[in-house]
Amino acid sequence: xxxxxxxxxxxxxxxxxxxxxxxxxxxxxxxxxxxxxxxxxxxxxxxxxxxxxxxxxxxxxxxxxxxxxxxxxxxxxxxxxxxxxxxxxxxxxxxxxxxxxxxxxxxxxxxxxxxxxxxxxxxxxxxxxxxxxxxxxxxxxxxxxxxxxxxxxxxxxxxxxxxxxxxxxxxxxxxxxxxxxxxxxxxxxxxxxxxxxxxxxxxxxxxxxxxxxxxxxxxxxxxxxxxxxxxxxxxxxxxxxxxxxxxxxxxxxxxxxxxxxxxxxxxxxxxxxxxxxxxxxxxxxxxxxxxxxxxxxxxxxxxxxxxxxxxxxxxxxxxxxxxxxxxxxxxxxxxxxxxxxxxxxxxxxxxxxxxxxxxxxxxxxxxxxxxxxxxxxxxxxxxxxxxxxxxxxxxxxxxxxxxxxxxxxxxxxxxxxxxxxxxxxxxxxxxxxxxxxxxxxxxxxxxxxxxxxxxxxxxxxxxxxxxxxxxxxxxxxxxxxxxxxxxxxxxxxxxxxxxxxxxxxxxxxxxxxxxxxxxxxxxxxxxxxxxxxxxxxxxxxxxxxxxxxxxxxxxxxxxxxxxxxxxxxxxxxxxxxxxxxxxxxxxxxxxxxxxxxxxxxxxxxxxxxxxxxxxxxxxxxxxxxxxxxxxxxxxxxxxxxxxxxxxxxxxxxxxxxxxxxxxxxxxxxxxxxxxxxxxxxxxxxxxxxxxxxxxxxxxxxxxxxxxxxxxxxxxxxxxxxxxxxxxxxxxxxxxx
Length: 736
Ligand SMILES: *[C@@H]1O[C@H](CO)[C@@H](O)[C@H](O)[C@H]1NC(C)=O
Ligand SMILES: *[C@@H]1O[C@H](CO)[C@@H](O)[C@H](O)[C@H]1NC(C)=O
Ligand SMILES: *[C@@H]1O[C@H](CO)[C@@H](O)[C@H](O)[C@H]1NC(C)=O
Fold this sequence. Notes:
By secondary structure, this protein is an alpha+beta fold. 37% of the residues are buried. One 2-acetamido-2-deoxy-beta-D-glucopyranose binds next to loops.
């Protein structure tokens, strides 16, 4: 009796839940409902219903089976969610896949025409992650999800971005709206229609370019994982496309346009159970499309200079913006001494750059040799530059440009040699210069970062690594491109202008109170935001520190030091004008429970590295050896992207030549950050800053003030606490 019951319920199960033992194929008159799924043969991917993030809506999608964090790589009804939980996927009488909700409303369909109604179709989820609709009799693929991307490109040769020249089918990626909504978002990664060798990341309906790959061949270095990553670019009469694949199929990786506007190559780290980034873009300043405007070069690792430099023969279009370190207006041709048409003009080599973009698309001639390429460009007076990749590099061809050159980023280790047209006098100047620096070329340092090169920094040894590397770096300065390299003079603002910008130093604009005065937020009439440090008239430490700070910071240019825009001295009033830091200072984040929870470990690590490279610059890379003497979390400011910038040079000291230590009778600084020999004996050296840096690192890691006490040992500081904790010593050994 019992056995009979069991048998009949088993029959029921088989009848009503045909997918309990998952299959990879959906046949006519079968269907999938919520809770059921198709599973590919090797169990790589599953197709079924999911609700993303906190959403209560349901979507039909494909996700990884072996990845423990649900990761959806394809969504069918991304803009038509199922309200309630009753979606049904089936094959209709015309052979198409259809998705309906509980009210039988059609939400999504493959909508292809299946010739011959007598033949039926089946849908299959393949191990590559492709959902295909095939005709039963001849196995012809009628529709596939690999032709209808959402935001993800999988490492499979059959999944491409690009276009089919015959059918006009365009393969592109569109970000989700948010983590909760897979609907069409703001960011699109697609082939540039004007010149079909490069891909762009666009934003919004206006298709504002955010980043571009550059024409193939790209310089995108990826940190190698266990397996080699093979990029595949095809350009023929049939199609232009990019796809990639891995030799090792066990590595799980995906290219995704994230809803934050980043194009990311991620891989699944099974031991850490999370997705990790191999590279992403736009990540660095020079990745940003047109960061330096037209006719200029963005050098991402320009430690102590403005990142934009004009091409040879060009000068800043707006010198004022340029001096405020805003390069977006770009450069214009200098007044010509000689016309550039049959007047002895020629080309200056600009080495190791990303191939430029241009409003007048470049022309690519695949048949010309290097020499013909140069001659051809020289002959045509409107040709502004050329780049030939014919002899050394497998013969792609000769590019010529006939207008402005846009979005040139300098790479430090790879890249292409762009030849820029200049008049005879500029040519003479540059020949001299290049002779002088010829010997130095090979010494150029290896990249930390470059426009499209994203490196994953893995180790806290970065401080030491940077130190080693910078030694090779002195030669960079000699290697100047063009004329934009002059240090802009410090701007002198008048008091009226400051009063206007800060609304007469209104208390509502007050950002904080420093040792020697107050800091106000201000805004110039052009919209630029500034921070104004107004020295208090009564402060005993006025003029000396003021002069010190102005002189020092004006000479220091580094992305991890706060940038001074100018100063204002009128009568008793003394002010320093800095760039505005929208995220205030590090203490504001680290010591606040709520805000510090928004700082994940990798962000904290980046901040530490940023502070380290700022200090390193002060200690040994700048022309002066500078001891800051008052490093503390409240003197580390954070910009909008949370990049740390060291500020407050009021008590900094300059060391001359090879001096390594000094002694002072006037100990300044902040207790808790000062090393004992300085606090007690007044002796200081670069090591004093390193001590303070160590305290800052501990504070960042522990989210606790050094001076705050511990319940068990109220008399102890954070440092004392850490050094007592033997079991934790290994975690902190790296910092010592
Ligand atoms: C879901 O909601 C919780 C609480 O409101 C929030 O903390 C979390 O970030 C949300 N998750 C997503 C993916 O939006
Ligand atoms: C840079 O200058 C341009 C043109 O003057 C202006 O539109 C833009 O807002 C400025 N950018 C910044 C960051 O100040
Ligand atoms: C120079 O090249 C441009 C672009 O190819 C072309 O339109 C123009 O006719 C050429 N001029 C001469 C004088 O050959």
